[in-house]
């Protein structure tokens, strides 16, 4: 058992601009016999940008120090619910560190990029198989981008049927990820939020009351954000389809479904996949990710262009799609992320992927059972099992000790454990949303349980200790009000806040 | 039961059974018993079997070896993604697993490294663009343009957006996809066929009380500069519209910044700043704005510098999250969540290495190389180089109408000789005739350029 003590590096590293010394350089350029060219003076920049003048040594030390003030999956458990912070196999990083992908231009003659095109083609086939739908666009750069593409496809579908004018509503449960309503709005729809029932699932009566001729579609994640499988999904699909709407699957929680249930079989028409969650690619501190969108046969014609196609043993990009929603970004997609996913699926294979679902669910249920017994914490809703994640409520602890979910999460940091997602979903009071993933060991799960137990005991005996944490991180508690206050907010090193 | 897997520690049979026992469950399948039978029944995956690391590596490497990279052939492709040198130090920094395997810094105390790096990125992009504020990244230039148009519409409550004729097609099409559901109209402003200059008459005719924003690019997609950029901005402002400039960041050590030209919003593609081409992605959407009035409508994450609560140390945190989807849901300024953070860290490291001097000298080197390529190609009979009479940087259009060959024929023949020619333009802008956009950067040597010129000469001589 680990000691539950943790000290993050505390370099108090200055801003890189404060390391700047005039005339110091960090670059080298080839010398050339080509003579310099003149530029009309009105096109020349008048004021040089205030960038640091530092050596390569300075830059490496600065950013390596900063990296040491950052917690990643390689350091330990990172149970952010709905983010699927699983381990990223190292071979994936090695495979993309080659000129054979890094130095490929997207507009090269197709004959010179057959390798990557084949990889993208086969990956497309596999992703369609995994979600049980027909055709894939690999272009979206992230899950929310995939949602936007999906919502635009709904739009195009209803437009083709001549009833976009009246079908202007997308239904979203109140437990949905924030991106769902935001994406629906970006695609020009009104958002109709429906309440969850007492068991945390879609309230069928509320849904029945909400569907109408105005319904363009429903956006849903299954398992939902409480980690509960929406068992009435076939009835939900029927209601939405009978009203003439489409069913959109938010793939954030796909990890639990691999080889166990296909969204296509649940009745979904459109799915986005978070490659960086389900398929082992690193999250990069907030990106780059990749969010392919997959559709049923009847919606293939609306996919963004181009798609990757095969003609015998030749692979090519197909721009010929009459009813396409068009382009949603420059070029074809986050290829180096997709390449990692290709290798990941190869290494897991069909059995390995099913194992991912099983163990991620096993881990979550094991944790849920144990953490639900920790004093002050409760596992709301009476379902017997959860899927890959679950939501605890710290409401009782907050009432009894004044220690909230936010405090508790900060205390976990002091134990060298990343906190869960807190205060989401909104339907659970003092929510802590926990997703261990399949890539943590039982020892780590037991350590997490011990950490929660310890923090709980502290909350009941010495609540200030918890409320004043963290102490072992690069910085102690942060003044976030000051960070966002109009008078003190500072977003660049140049900016002088009005009041300090 | 499956075989234990190296990335799944609890896939060991014994541990699994221990945990199942603890849960009072006999079979892991019981944990999926809440899935209705008809759904559960048809779930087997038709995928390849599990492969070892060795097999996977060999297979992927074999497939990748079939690609020809810009190391294998000399390439003159640009047009939105460009070959620029990525210093080894940048690759090293973004390979740090503490950065690479972290996520959005929702817990700032334990994520200061990423937050500070992104704050520095925002500072450097704001400096480069000559703006007050920059966000911590969007997906790419095309989506940044879409977001800029919608932001200008929200700010002005108007619904028309003016763009020049010569903009990269992906970018325009993405703009349309973003704007259509907002009920916005995109109007194209003519550019002079000889100089590329934006037509003042056409601009005056199309701008009006419905105009939310006027967009220009400097340098343009076809590599030439707009001499009247400042004046266009003034016209936009006179009509109460916002002025948006798209810029190539690698030009900004040498050439005028969007801020100096009066832009309210500056956007661009950050890939040249320490990010590999990667067959077109990931890219890095740059997004900056002039003043605080605009800030609250800005899409994307923002990092602020603050202090610890006890005031003893500087600290960083995400700010103005009330603009964002996870707080504001359907009222958010954008749906963006996962962005291109690691590419932004690469850009910060790159700009730190280059500094103001490096960026200016790099700009001059690219200018010298691309000007040399233009001069040399101009000597080839039958070519028109550049197609537009204006100052160019890095890219220029070459006309092949006088050669009797189509642009794609030229490219096919060049490829047989180990050269990837420029981006064919005739499909994109038919009025330009048989033409291609050539890109020359610091990565091209004089020999590369001379070889291109000699090869084209030889090809044309053989006709």
Describe this structure in words.
The complex is a heterodimer of chains A (500) and B (463). With 500 residues, chain A is α/β, with parallel strands linked by helices. Chain A has two domains: 94-347, Type I PLP-dependent aspartate aminotransferase-like (Major domain) (Aspartate Aminotransferase, domain 2, 3-Layer(aba) Sandwich); 351-475, Aspartate Aminotransferase, domain 1 (Alpha-Beta Complex), CATH 3.90.1150. Chain A contains 16 helices and twelve strands. Chain A has helices at residues 56-68, 90-96, 99-102, 114-131, 143-160, 179-186, 204-210, 233-242, 263-266, 275-278, 335-371, 395-401, 405-414, 442-461, 463-467, 480-484; strands at 135-137, 169-173, 190-194, 215-220, 246-251, 270-273, 293-295, 307-311, 314-318, 390-393, 421-422, 431-434. Chain A has a seven-stranded mixed beta sheet with strand order 1-7-6-5-4-2-3, with helices on both faces. In chain A, strands 10-12-11 form a three-stranded antiparallel beta sheet, with helices on one face. Chain A has a two-stranded antiparallel ribbon with strand order 8-9. In chain A, helix 4 (114-131) runs parallel beside helix 11 (335-371). Chain A is globular, with a radius of gyration of 25 Å. Chain A starts with 55 loop residues before the first helix and ends in a 16-residue tail after the last helix. The mean pLDDT of chain A is 96. Chain B has 463 residues and is α/β, with parallel strands linked by helices. Chain B has three domains: 1-37, no CATH class; 74-84 and 355-461, Aspartate Aminotransferase, domain 1 (Alpha-Beta Complex), CATH 3.90.1150; 88-351, 3-Layer(aba) Sandwich (Aspartate Aminotransferase, domain 2), CATH 3.40.640.10. Chain B contains 15 helices and 14 strands. In chain B, the strands form four sheets. Chain B has a seven-stranded mixed beta sheet with strand order 2-8-7-6-5-3-4, with helices on both faces. Chain B has a three-stranded antiparallel beta sheet with strand order 11-14-13, with helices on one face. In chain B, strands 1-12 form a two-stranded parallel ribbon. In chain B, helix 13 (341-378) packs across helix 15 (446-461). Chain B is globular and about 80 Å long. The N and C termini of chain B lie far apart (68 Å).
